[in-house]
């Protein structure tokens, strides 16, 4: 796993095309252009600009040159909050192998040790038990339910909210 680079746009677009059906129930509805190298290049560029401002970090999980997962620390807020949101997915062909758990644990350590954050929040759909297990393994605790939290797969859906506190 490493920070995404501009040169990863083709691999990211290929991963989204390959995982279209796998990700559709868990993500916002996407326009056709989203699955292109050009769209992904623009998204990576925006995330790199956000990273330079200290607002987020986008990671890719690779096996060789093939991108098999994406992990985003986004919405980093400093000041008294020192917090970020975590979103992620793993390629359907690699799901259930512990990759997401290992990656989220590494991101928690990175956020604590390198970014010096106090807290990370993540949300899952109530029926996404696999993602909830990933978060619990990484030390997250469920803190509540957010009704109609995100527009996923074309409709506003409730989410279970989780957090991990990184510093006492």
TrEMBL record:
Q: Does the keyword Acyltransferase apply?
A: yes
Q: What keywords does the record list, in alphabetical order?
A: Acyltransferase, Transferase
Q: Which residues form the N-acetyltransferase domain?
A: 1-163
Matching entries from SUPFAM superfamilies are given as: Acyl-CoA N-acyltransferases (Nat) (SSF55729)
- Please give the superkingdom of this protein's source: Bacteria
Q: One GO MF term, please?
A: protein-N-terminal-alanine acetyltransferase activity
Pull one GO CC term from this UniProt entry: cytoplasm
Q: Which family does it belong to?
A: Belongs to the acetyltransferase family. RimJ subfamily.
Kindly provide the name given to this protein in its UniProt entry.
Acetyltransferase
Q: Which taxonomic lineage is given here?
A: Bacteria, Bacillati, Actinomycetota, Actinomycetes, Micrococcales
């Amino acid at each position: 796993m490493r920070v995404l680079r501009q040169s990863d746009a083709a691999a990211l677009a290929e991963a989204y095309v390959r995982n279209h059906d796998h990700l559709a129930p868990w993500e916002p509805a996407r326009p056709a252009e989203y699955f292109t190298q050009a769209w992904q290049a623009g998204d990576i560029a925006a995330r790199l600009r956000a990273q330079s401002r200290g607002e987020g970090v986008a990671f890719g999980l690779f096996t060789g040159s093939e991108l098999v997962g994406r992990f985003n620390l986004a919405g980093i807020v400093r000041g008294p909050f020192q917090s970020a949101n975590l979103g992620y997915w793993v390629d359907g062909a690699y799901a259930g192998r512990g990759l997401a758990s290992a990656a989220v644990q590494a991101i928690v350590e990175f956020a604590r040790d390198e970014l010096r954050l106090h807290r990370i929040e993540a949300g899952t759909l109530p029926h996404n038990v696999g993602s909830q297990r990933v978060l619990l393994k990484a030390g997250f605790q469920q803190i509540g339910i957010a009704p109609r939290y995100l527009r996923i797969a074309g409709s506003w859906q409730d989410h279970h909210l989780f957090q991990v506190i990184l510093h006492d």
